[in-house]
Here is the input.
Amino acid sequence: MTAERIAFAYAISIVPAIFIETCMTNAEIAIESPCNRVCVMHPAAQLCIGCGRTLDEIGRWSELGAAERSGIMAQLGSRLAALRAGNVAPAATHEAD
Here is the structure.
């Protein structure tokens, strides 16, 4: 592999991380988040397939209290497992979890 190809591969690998970090506010960086930067919403379940949160939870994350964030984080494993297993529940049920 040539030096130019190595440099290009490196540049491509860091661009998404740099872009995402510049888009996040200081408050979002300081708050613990389950975000793993795989931000794709499942169309039926209306959950992010990367972290398991709803769009509403993602949008309000930095405004939620620590207890509410912890409660949501406790549900994420089972939500993601259900998505992987194909057990897709309607989006409305996630708000009451």
About this structure: DSSP finds five helices and no strands in the chain.
